């Protein structure tokens, strides 16, 4: 049995050892887990094991996408390398004499191959990373007759350029996007994935934590700290039971969260979209801020279990309202930039 600190030391030693065994440019990824089915001796490792398990299965889900990207990158690299080889071979053939002094000229060209690289790089605007290894190329050229090299064929180079500019872009667009959203269906299902992707039982990954806290409970989760939030609300000088953007902002910025995060909190909390916060919405805003401060992510849309009970009917009507009637609702006094990234600005 090892504690959390000892586990990290073992992990570091394993990574160091693998670095000498696995000769790959990428850093080896080691996942930490446990097959122990008895009570954990060090419960502090529980979250570490759960996080690592999620990372492992998430990476397995992305294997098809990563394999396609790897193949495309290899194709691009080989196409560029073939293009550079064509320029090099053409330059060597062009500088060879037709009759006398072939052997001596060949030795000079091999010796000064680095200068040929520089010339090709300047003339054709090619990155130095696209050129083959200089020493290895010099060793290989010793065994070839430069006079038998084929001349440069511009038409074939145009085909390669067209492939890199158009065909590769089309293939890249066909590859699935970077992340699988929480609502989309996973690509790999069944077996061990069913246990890891548990969204039904209360023992699923991060169930009942962060934004999921209060899900399935009869009482609104925000009500547990409502007395504290109501006291804040009253000190901010509400007008007709509501706080202006400036008044709410003065309290929300005390969290020291970035404006982009606080702007997201505002948009999630202003359920009725009137540009102000009533006591329920303010309590919700403070609850979301606490969730973020505790290290959890905020959702893009407010989950149903966090909607204030007084707003359920209004929210339903807001979604059912035709697009043409949206303008009738009172607009918040924000600038366009504030709507997207920041808190609401003060009223004039």
Automatic annotation (TrEMBL):
Keyword match Calcium: yes
GO cellular component: a single term: cytoplasm
Region entry Disordered, spans: 321-348
One Pfam family named in its UniProt record: EH
Compositional bias per record (Polar residues), positions renumbered to this chain: 338-348
GO terms (BP aspect): endocytosis; endosomal transport
Keyword Calcium: yes
Domain called EH: residue spans: 225-313
Keyword terms: Calcium
CDD domains referenced in this protein's UniProt entry, alphabetically: EH
Molecular-function GO terms, alphabetical: calcium ion binding
Domain EF-hand: 257-292
InterPro entries attached to this UniProt entry: DUF5600, EF-hand-dom_pair, EF_Hand_1_Ca_BS, EF_hand_dom, EH_dom
Stored PANTHER family: AT21416P, EH DOMAIN
Name of this protein: Uncharacterized protein
Source organism phylogeny: Eukaryota, Metazoa, Ecdysozoa, Arthropoda, Hexapoda
